[in-house]
Amino acid sequence: MDALGWDSCDVILVTGDAYVDHPSFGMAVIGRVLEAHGFRVGIISQPDWTSKDDFMKLGKPNLYFGVTAGNMDSMINRYTSDKKLRHDDAYTPGNIGGKRPDRAVTVYSQRCREAFKGVPVIVGGIEASLRRIAHYDYWSEKVRRSVLFDSKADMLFFGNAERPLVEVTHRLAAGEDIADLRDIRGTAIIVKEALPEWQGVDSTSLDRPGKIDAIPSPYQMEPECDSQDKDTKSSEAPEAAPVVIQPAQKEKEKRKPWENVYVKLPAYETVKDNKVLYAHTSRILHQETNPGCARALMQRHGDRHIWINPPAMPLETEEMDAVFDLPYQRVPHPVYGDAKIPAYEMIRFSINIMRGCYGGCTFCSITEHEGRIIQSRSEDSIIREIEQIRDTVPGFTGVISDLGGPTANMYRLRCKSPKAEATCRRPSCVYPSICAHMDTDHKPTIDLYRRARELPGIKKILIASGVRYDLAVEDPEYVKELALHHVGGYLKIAPEHTEDGPLSKMMKPGMGSYYRFKELFDKYSQEAGKKQYLIPYFIASHPGTTDEDMLSLAIWLKENKFKLDQVQNFYPSPMATATTMYHTEVNSLRKVTKDSEEVPSAKGEIHRRLHKAMLRYHDPKNFAQIREALKRMGREDLIGRGPQHLVPPETANEKRQKAQKGRRGERALTKHTGLPPTFQGKNSKGGSGANKSRRNSNANKQGRGNTVEKRNEAGGNKNRGSASKGNNSGGNSRGRTQKQPSMHKR
């Protein structure tokens, strides 16, 4: 601050990540956007949360504290899907874990309050975004309140949030009170009652779940978004344009039926105990994610309510370019020295070309955070970033590690009908089949790949983001381009499962699309004379998955000669649809009623470990667990050493180890756990019987002592050796022999 000549900061941002000035790190984007709008921004990275001292280092902010846990949810960052503690952190120098607290948004917010009372606190990022409503918390196994109540923050930003960020900051700088900023898109606040002039729809019961009210003739409205892309070939960087706060509204436009309408959800006190109403609430929430037609949501927590405004409108191409053309240094802060930050090492030569995903996978939170509408950068903006990496980033060898985003092949693939896009409430544009309105022409992506790899100094462009193969097969030319030029031997794709049961709860395509893609990929790889392979990813323990489903997947893996090294168990992240099914065991993808379809879920460490073991059927550590499961399922026919068998039978060595383990597991007998019958006697319960038993025991001990003495006198080699050993070591035999006369006297 002294070097910049600042006496104070307008905004101070607090993050749980190390600071990397790169557009893949949210805090860098937020800071650069505010800087472009003329605000003085300070960043406190990974502060010591045990006191308020670190939160006071930059002084009191003029406008507000902005708080985020970082690029990852702090709980997912700290714990595995089996709730085991992680000891590493990819967003920390040296990959050291424990540099941020659990539930970091709440902890950081409270420390900001302690540091400077009266300063507004705004929370955002992925952790706050996915906890904006009452949500199931996997780690405590209960439904928690909205993070706004726990953190005591003034406002919450959800999504990428450039629009609400700019609007709120400018209005606070103009002197408005944060309590008066109530209806800004992409924000959530705490209210005592509904906002004035808003009409409410009560959806606190199961009468009409998932259908709040009718949408009259949505396809007869005027287009709300421009689907035309303007391509230019100039590579000169234009002057960065500020992010537009909000698209202009037409003055005489007819009011739409969802405008100024809110949905009253079941209260927190209700959904924390009623799983059916929790599923109903989750279904409504996921139906209100389209910025073009979403209603506001209101949920009571005690005597107050959480008010969630509709999502912010997505950025247009020019605005995306403006955000990514900001002067990022693309390196970690110098304060970290030579310490490696694994997350940065992974993405330092990669480029984000788009945002959003309309796949709608139920286990993924991208839709809830970034939205379903694809927001793409221009080709020129992407080329400029490649050139910047080539010319400025240390260690660049000519290989771009990725041109992608949430999905590799959704660049510029949007709904062909702006009217339909603005009013659609489908949870997925590609499931159960690809929507007729969806554009599947990959030509813009192919053109981008070709232009990028022709740049001087660029040796190869790799595609590391996951390929949506059900889209790719709609354009074989894209598969050909991918196989010929952009695969480094292996290509990652994610079928996630092979069976219809779990796939229907994931909203993923069937294996038919996988086989079609594999056929094309193998064909074009062979034509190019390359040996290239598909690496499929699968999820174990996903809601809707039975033991039989996992067994079928294991058999498929063996038949196709896959031996997976890295596998994952389903991780119930907050607010995901799959998490709702895991918690409630109710199918919230359909109308929720008291008789809704039950969804089986593997719960508990043992059951989840079995499902994960099935994916690694070839690991000897899993043989015993899989064998036991096969016996329970009546599938002993899969135990053997033939090619048709899944696991080998139990070996003699395993049987011995099992027997030894069983003996080691026996409890030691003491006076507290009961002695063997030989020592207790027939009348051990009575007092006289117990005394008699003790006398008999002493007599037995005396007899044994006399026997040892006689044997020693006889000079038996074996017993003499034992007695000698006992004498030399002061062992029990000698002690018992010498003490017998005294015991007899007692």
Provide an overview of this structure:
The protein has 746 residues and is α/β, with parallel strands linked by helices. Among the domains are: 2-186, Cobalamin-binding domain (Rossmann fold), CATH 3.40.50; 190-207 and 256-309, no CATH class; 349-530, Transcription Regulator spoIIAA, CATH 3.30.750. The protein has 27 helices and 21 strands. The strands form 6 sheets. It has a 10-stranded mixed β-sheet, sandwiched between helices. A 3-stranded parallel β-sheet has the order 19-20-21. Strands 5-6 form a two-stranded antiparallel ribbon. Residues 209-241, 247-251 and 679-746 have low confidence and may be disordered.
List the helices and strands and how they pair.
Blueprint: E1 11-15, H1 26-36, E2 41-45, E3 64-68, H2 74-78, H3 104-115, E4 121-123, H4 125-129, E5 135-137, E6 142-144, H5 147-151, E7 155-157, H6 162-173, E8 187-191, E9 199-202, E10 261-265, H7 268-271, H8 275-287, E11 296-301, E12 304-308, H9 317-324, H10 342-347, E13 350-352, E14 354-355, H11 366-370, E15 375-376, H12 379-392, E16 399-400, E17 402-404, H13 418-423, H14 443-453, E18 460-461, H15 469-472, H16 476-485, E19 490-496, H17 500-506, H18 511-527, E20 533-540, H19 547-559, E21 568-569, H20 577-584, H21 605-615, H22 623-632, H23 652-664, H24 677-680, H25 687-714, H26 717-729, H27 732-745
Parallel strand pairs: 1-2, 1-3, 3-4, 4-7, 9-10, 10-11, 13-17, 16-18, 19-20, 20-21
Antiparallel strand pairs: 5-6, 7-8, 8-12, 11-12, 14-15
Helix pairs in contact: 8-20, 16-18, 19-21, 25-27
